[in-house]
Specification:
With 319 residues, the chain is an alpha/beta fold. 27% of the residues lie in helices and 20% in strands.
């Protein structure tokens, strides 16, 4: 994207909306009404952005499934987005088979002109605020974070970079992208990791991970967390939290016991997410359950044997 043709947007800052995961069918253990509840959150965020004169930015994974979303959902999004045209970063859930293709739902919104898509890495737009001009850059899912950003002579001094990556924040130290100073970048703000993380400063670069606005997992952590969007404004040292109007945890998840604490760790949630994606792919891509289990089950865990027994029972004895 050429720097000389970057669009100029006016506002007091950014309203950061993390990973909505909009879907027609409730994912995981969410109860019916999921689509309407997430749409209500998105609408509340857009109203908040307009009220506070902030530019709305979705940090990836607008959709839970990349394709086969209902026309009703797309029409509702077109109506909701047409006035504000939020900037939307491409996340991993927005792509089909790891690629952003013209047949995914996010591409439909882009073709309708109701979103400003951030699908390629690099500078995206110039933000004109009362305090300063700000360059907003982004790295969508699937691209490498910049090692540095070299400012052009006419570029603003302040640079904010948005991304959708596995970053080694304190609770995710095994993630691939280490936290470091990125010369020329003042803030790096990440989607993708749903659990909010503390802000970290490395050199002149501040790293932030506000978390997502949608509770997807039935865990104690989800129950304790308030869905929130966050504002970034020039000169801030922390993102400003705004709690989104939302239903009680008991109204959106079943009335049942929580799983044991050890099953709530990130690895297990990724396993459940993998099973969920497999269920979707089974009717669309023909991906085999056996291969998934062989790749993901830990043979040393007691429940793995139970899962294999259930698998053999369902498939008629194949092991």
């Amino acid at each position: 994207m050429g720097r000389s043709v970057l669009p100029v947007v006016h506002g007091k800052g950014l309203l950061l909306i993390g990973d909505p995961h909009l879907a027609d069918i409730p994912p995981g253990q969410r109860l019916p009404g999921y689509r309407e509840q997430v749409m209500d959150k998105l609408s509340a965020c857009l109203d908040r952005a307009a009220e506070k004169n902030l530019v709305p930015v979705i940090l990836g994974d607008l959709f839970h499934w990349p394709r086969d979303n209902s026309n009703q959902m797309l029409v509702e999004l077109m109506a909701a987005f047409s006035g504000s045209r939020p900037f939307v970063l491409v996340g991993n859930h927005d792509k089909y088979q790891a690629r952003f293709t013209p047949d995914v739902s996010l591409a439909v919104l882009d073709a309708a002109g109701v979103v400003r898509l951030m699908a390629e890495p690099g500078p995206q737009f110039l933000l004109e605020t009362p305090e300063a001009r700000v360059l907003i850059g982004a790295t969508p899912d699937g691209f490498k974070l910049p090692k540095a950003h070299e400012r052009a002579e006419d570029e603003p001094e302040t640079v904010v970079w948005l991304c959708h990556h596995n970053i080694s924040f304190p609770e995710f130290l095994d993630r691939a992208c280490g936290i470091r100073e990125i010369p020329g970048v003042d803030w790096l703000i990440n989607g993708h990791i749903h659990r909010p993380q503390p802000t970290i400063v490395k050199g002149r670069t501040t790293w932030a991970n506000p978390g997502n606005i949608t509770r997807l997992t039935f865990t104690r952590r989800s129950k304790e967390r308030e869905p929130a969007a966050f504002a970034w404004k020039p000169g801030c040292t922390e993102l400003e939290k705004w709690v989104i109007p939302h239903l009680l945890f008991e109204q959106v998840f079943p009335d049942q016991e929580f799983p044991p604490e050890e099953m709530e760790q990130d690895g297990d949630s990724r396993f459940i997410e993998g099973l969920e994606r497999l269920a979707w792919k089974r009717t669309r891509e023909g991906v085999g359950l056996k291969q998934f289990l062989e790749k993901n089950l830990d043979p040393d865990r007691i429940e793995s044997g139970l899962i294999w027994e259930l698998y053999k029972e369902v498939t008629g004895g194949e092991g």
